[in-house]
Amino acid sequence: MNDTIVCKFGGSxxxxxxxxxxxxxxxxxxxRRRYVVPSAPGRRFDGDDKVTDLxxxxxxxxxxxxxxxxxxxxxxxxxxxxxxxxxxALDVAALLENTRADIERVRTPDFAASxxxxxxxxxxxxxxxxxxxxxxxxxxxxxxxAFAAEWTNRVLSEELKGHAHAVIPGFYGxxxxxxxxxxxxxxxxxxxxVVARAAQAALYENWTDVSGFLMADPRIVEAPAGIExxxxxELRELSYMGATVLHEDAIFPVHKAGIxxxxxxxxxxxxxxxxxxxxxxxxxxxxxxTGIAGHKNFSLISIEKAMMNxxxxxxxxxxxxxxxxxxxxxxxxxxIDTMCVVVAESDLNRYRDKLINRIGELCQPDHIEISSGxxxxxxxxxxxxxxxxxxxxxxxxxxxxGVNVRMIDQGxxxxxxxxxxxxxxxxxxxxxxxxxxxxxx
Length: 441
Known about the structure:
Order of helices and strands: EHEHHHHEHEEEHEEHHEEEHEEHEHEEH
Shape: globular
Distance between the termini: 39 Å
Largest sheet: 8 strands, mixed
Structural class: alpha/beta
Radius of gyration: 24 Å
Strand content: 15-25%
């Protein structure tokens, strides 16, 4: 571990020349910021196109045998405008023409989509005067397309030793044969974390257009408090339940290496944002809870059978039936003679009758009931473990708000309490929990 800081800038931060200028000011403000991972340009205003979306459209047109010239012209205009406004001494026209020709030649969606980050990386490196490292040369995927974390770490660590400062595009890497492979959308967050691990950085800064995480969705709770610090475990729970500031897979490389992550706002660089760390002392928790997150549109499959607890393999057979239809389960609240499986409503609707029949064949239950329109709300916080009456306060708040709790699920770690409520009561439930733990604290 050294004092190096690795920075990632999101698409909203690098959507135009002014974003590049802000990023440069941030990078040069601290000599420890040595490596930067850029995303492709995002939207500049409502109704604007993301460059990645335009590149996918180019691929689709090429694949159909159509010309992508008109679509690519929009892409070229974005990059040419950025280069012109920054005064870059770079043959952008040739770079863009070569890129268009490569998209038509390679004809894969991953290659086409990756060019957004690639071009932004070339421009940012020229603007900063830093070295450019093509992610296809240092980020590895195996033949099956799975990210090869340890292989990447070895190759990238060795490469970074030869660069005092460098720009490494996010979102993509390469198969063993050199063909470009991308992460899922938003995968530049993962790339930044991968570079931070390889650099043995002291800190990974993820620069975006918000000042870190909020304790609740601002579309539901008016002016929710910001989260100053949270642990990777808390982040994992909140991300899984809908908090989307950071790609949920981005935590693993830095968490494994013990590197803290700082979510920062490019438009407000003085704001400390949210710091994500391995662990925290009790004194650092401002509230008993860290955050609230949730989703709508779940279904609850309730399977009842007398003496279920004494029947060996019953749970395995239920999950076998669910797996056979390619459905992932979310939670498994259980009782002595009842097992419940929570699944996404959209997944269940495709196979509803077939799944019920299959569970019946495998398990011979006394009764199967499906309840739809369920919303799940996770109240998350390691401080909950050390605070007496947390569950009582939560359920009292829901009772006073007139919210009916249809399901309760709490892990043994006491890191979170998940409740299921009717979808139409979702917003009221979130506000009630927030008011009880934050405004009433």
